[in-house]
Amino acid sequence: MIRIIIQYSVLKTLIIVFVLLVLSNQNNDMLYGNETGKNLNETSEDAINIIFTGEENGYLEPCGCSEKELGGLSKRHSLINLLREKDANWILLSLGDIPGKVGRQDEIKMETALKALGRMGYAAHNIGEKDISMGLDLLGYLSQISSVDFVSSNIVNPGPQILRIKPYIVKEIKIKGATRKVGILGIVSPELIDNGYQKIEVVDPIESLEPLISKLIDKTDLLILLSHAEIGDSIKIAENYPEFDLIISGHGIDEPGLHIAKVKDTYVIPVGEKGKYLGTITMQPEFSRTDEDRPSTNSNLPSVEIISLDERFGDSTEIKMLLKIYQQRLRDEELLTQVFKTELPSNLSFIGNDDCAACHNKIFKHWKETGHASAYETLVKAEHEYDPECIECHVIGLNYFTGFETIESTPELKGVGCESCHGPGSAHKETQSKDYGKIDAVDCTTCHENEHSPSFEFNEYWQQIIHPLEEK
């Protein structure tokens, strides 16, 4: 892991790397479309700089099982600090959807993430449908204590004493001695909301935006919309409201650099998912909207970058401490003991690795030398052994009755054991059936999926764990 040291030589090296990557066009980590202007690293004092992220979907940090994973709040903070070394004039915006699921762990995640956004200096967090799914009580509580403004232009506020949200905010930026104003609005698509269990009214964005735009158009120099909607819906909004200079969007898009669009003078730019990317755009309005003969804001072509949060960026110490506190809260609340469990079929049960060793001793001894056997210890080393989401792929049967519970009560089920791949072994222990436990490459992808194991290749990985022949 490369750590960023704020020294001139290192900073200069990173800038050169950024430029070379752009010029070589080797990947989509940094993208400049045909409409983009000068390099972000050439920002000037007369520019308005925007940083945008969102749709973490429960990923505060990569799982850590692979060196090639992208994302994480601590890497994001390091990059933001690097950008601020070059130019302190940034407006930070969050598109929404911090949690990924519903449950106590994601409640703690959401609170932790909002604290991190506050420390990074975010101006606004747009409310997404997964934020809403956490419930009005939690969302209201977090809106009251967070230093980041909650924004939504199409959620009907049930009352400021319950949910502290604003239909828009206006940020003031000093440029060449003059004050420039940036209007920031936010919407969530009603089509994404499950009205069956949430008591929040969401109205049509086209209807809700019109009066707000009329109110802000002559009072701001830039208008930005945080559009928590499918990219096609955001483009329709741009077509209806050309007053927007920028729309941040892209719900459900994994590679945001491939979906940047321009509708007349409005840029529509997605953020990606799972916190893997950070987007920036630099715009240089030279006149206020009230100035006579003011040219279009976009006459100065903006510079757009979609930056992947990879190993180039170290971990922010401040955010790492927040994440450590998050892990401690999971332990203190004993969330491992609260994991929802289901029954195994046909009265099967897990028996543990030692029982398998009684008949398959040669295979067992080989397994003990593989990474699967020490999978639990890797979590202990990373201090994630009390995290239910991590534990699931590092023990046997966490989500089933008779499966792993805690290291104290079920030590025989730690690690990626025989039954992690072959299934519960109670019936096989009794019958020695030859039909037990047949698997193929697809079974491996339960844990070795693209997000957690992006370099997984079955044939290559299988060679590391292939069983020796059984002794007769």
Automatic annotation (TrEMBL):
Domain Cytochrome c-552/4: 356-423
Pfam families given in the database record: Cytochrome_C554
Gene3D superfamilies associated with the record: 3.60.21.10, Flavocytochrome C3, Chain A
Transmembrane segments: 6-23
CC terms in the record's Gene Ontology section: outer membrane-bounded periplasmic space
Keyword set, alphabetical order: Membrane, Transmembrane, Transmembrane helix
Gene Ontology molecular function, alphabetical: 5'-nucleotidase activity; UDP-sugar diphosphatase activity
GO BP annotation list: nucleotide catabolic process
Protein name from the UniProt record: Cytochrome c-552/4 domain-containing protein
Organism, as annotated: Candidatus Scalindua arabica
Lineage: Bacteria, Pseudomonadati, Planctomycetota, Candidatus Brocadiia, Candidatus Brocadiales
